[in-house]
Amino acid sequence: MIKQDRISLTIDGFKVDVAPGTTVMQAADRVGVHIPRLCYHPKLSILGACRICIVELKKEGRMVASCSYPVEEGMVVVTSSPKLRRYRRDIVELILDNHPKDCQTCVRDGNCELQNAAYSLGVRERLFEGERKSFARDESSPSIQRDPEKCILCGRCVRVCDEVQGVTNLWQQFRGFESVAAPAHNNEIKHSVCIHCGQCVNVCPTASIVEKNTTDELFEALADPEMTVVVQTAPSIRAALGEGFGYSPGTPVTGKMVTALNLMGFDAVFDTNLGADLTIIEESEEFLNRLESGDDLPLITSCSPGWISFMETFYPHLIPYASTCKSPMSMLSSLIKTYYAETREIDPEKIYSVAVMPCTAKKFEAARDEHKTDWGAPYTDNVITTRELIWMCKCMGINFRRLPDSQFDSPLGVSTGGGDIFGTTGGVTEAALRTAYEKITGETLDELDFMAVRGVEGLREATIELAGREINIGVANGLQNAKELFDRLSAGEKQYHLLEIMACPGGCVGGGGQPYPPEDTFSLDPELVKSRAKALYSIDSNKKLRKSHENPAIQELYTYYLGEPNGERSHQLLHTCYKPNKRRGIR
Amino acid sequence: MNRDYSLSSEIVQSLQDFSEKNRPESYLIPALQMVQESYGFLSREHLDEVALLLRVPYAKVTGVASFYHFFNFKPSGENEIVICTGTACHVRGAGAVLDRFLEELQVKLEQPTEDGRFSVTDARCVGACAQAPVVIIGEKVYSKVTPDDVPEILSEYGFEADS
To answer: Are A260 and A222 in contact (CB under 8 A)?
Structure first.
């Protein structure tokens, strides 16, 4: 038999040529027809569970699920007919029948895929009324909240947790009416191997899995006259926040974001980028020390709290290799309740420190015992996600698009381009190399763009020459890719010196707290992540100061407060430790 | 009754053998069957132990185990009374038989009596439809059972109602 290169078929009267193995749904996308879908996700394996993507095959006279049906030569496909519309509507009605009727009070009202499907398929009344499944909500985690009653069993969370993150914390438990996507033993998240990355939140079509919302506490704090409420914003927020207000992905909105935070009533708006610059100073010092002694190599980055949880649960033997540096957020939070409080003569117990993060795992990080003050309060009192900030702006009537630009406050708002690129995969490595190069050689680095470590591919390797030494670097984003990197590491074929691990695909720009993707794109879309990353690289290249150690605010910090990088005070305030999780992950 | 649920060395050895096979995951069901056969049920500890030994994620192990009716998660009584509620048994009155067993023993489905001697469970079609309704206790099969037969069946196992 001759192997065919292309397969031609007809979709709604249009002829289309596609490669063999293409599904009918993908072929329809090609001709500009969007077949409704719920369980399908372009970056996950095919499940074929929801059945709303059915189409008619004219010649065979039957209906098939287009997400899983491969194209055939000469096929005649109809994607829309009264019969199909009726069937799809019935399917959605049956899903809705087993779903709470609380759209108006639901956190995903307006951006729910089930709601959108019901609307676009013309579900205008609820014809069926029957028993509904009943499950308790799981509010045990500081990061992720599960409401299984809103679950439509699409299995996206199960697949992303298994296929993309390699965590496999969620699986369909029980059978029939009792089916639920849940951790082992139907346990609460607190008693599971969840690493809090929030990728399940990003792919969930409904509000069955969402971040733990902490905006109420924040509103209370902002209204409390006794508290000094300060906020810091992560590097990747500025590249994604605009999407919540109709800007296309990759539009940097730093100035408007600062104005919005001022309007919300924060007493000071600081930049996590400064924390990132500081991380680079501490981490590159740590790196050069390890390079010199040859001990504990490769150094593994520690800014991604999802990765840290993953390490503590699945790879505890790697703990000695992880950098002891706190994350940029936690470094800056430490300084807010010490350095900032002292210089401004504010009682640190009266400071409420907030962080806006692209990340659900940061909520978990902030609650860790290692990040608490001597008086028992967390250094970071509240972490909200990019999504929560978008909602707060809308709640407060802030007309984001009309806002003028503002600057971050001093002294903790000054940063270099090295801090900006932290928000994307490869960025930490690049920023560290810029500083390490000058430290080790004593020469000025002119070519700042380390193209070898850029890109959004899940796993990259590069070899960089640093003062006559070859430095082997591995960069992984998405924990399934990290697993592969660790396999290479344990195979021992080459000596790695530096590994950068980000839990989320694409790094923080693809974080579990980032906005639900605008139309025409989807979570885990490399193009979406790329455009957000591009915004960060352009901010970096437009900055005068692009090397973390040139940050004047940081230089001042070391001169007047911290002393030496990796010195005593730095260690006390800027470094942390890790411990193996009692529940061992199976990898 | 043996309350020590840690896996015996023979089972641990078999699970380790499974884990060295090409696709250990495909031995998950046989592994669970083996454990249930030995202990009568699958405890949380058993399930976690199977996961660790087979190197299959916990959630997958409990997901598979909880999908199949065959696996149970609570210890059953010494005498497990299985009442078929498949279609044929159902239409010939298995429901009333089941209710009578629960009533006589004063228990709920799959919950052993206080002395641990009896438990009642249902099954979907045991393949003896001509004998419907069917009740199985241990190796013994009772056919065409009516609710009134129940006290006599129970007395064969030394059960006497209080009243």
So the answer is: no
Whether residue A101 lies inside any domain: the answer is no
Task: Give the C-alpha separation, A292 to A289, whole Å.
Answer: 5
* B69 neighbourhood in chain A, CB within 8 Å: 175
Q: How far apart are CA A392 and CA B78, in angstroms?
A: 60
- Closest chain A C-alpha to B69 CA, distance in angstroms: 9
Query: DSSP E strands: which ranges in A519-585?
Result: none
How large is the angle between the packed helices A272-293 and A427-441, nearest 10 degrees? 60
* Fold (CATH) for B79-156: Glutaredoxin (3.40.30)
For every residue of A331-354, DSSP letters joined together read HHHHHIIIIIHHHHT--GGGEEEE
Q: Which residues of A are catalytic?
A: 283, 286, 303, 323, 362, 365, 370, 508
Kindly indicate the confidence band of residue A505, based on its pLDDT and cuts at 50, 70 and 90: very high
State phi, psi for A549 to the nearest 5 degrees. -75, -10
pLDDT, residue A3, reads: 66
The answer to whether B44 contacts A185, with C-beta atoms less than 8 Å apart, is: yes
Q: Would you call B130 exposed, middle or buried from its count of C-beta atoms within 10 A (0-12, 13-18, 19+)?
A: exposed
Helix axes B9-19, B28-39, angle to 10 degrees: 180
Beta bridge partners of B83: B122, B135
Of A80, A98, A125, the residue that ends a domain is A80
Range(s) of the domain holding residue A29: 7-80
Contact (CB<8Å) B55/A584: no
The secondary structure of A278-307 as a DSSP string is HHHHHHHHHHHHHHHH--SPSEE----HHH
What is the strand order of the sheet B135-137 is part of?
B118-123, B79-84, B135-137, B140-142
What CA dihedral angle connects A526, A529, A530 and A531, to 10 degrees?
130
DSSP state of A164: I
Domain-terminating residue out of A80, A109, A129: A80
Give the pLDDT band (50/70/90) at residue B2.
very low
Peptide bond into A411 cis (omega under 30): yes
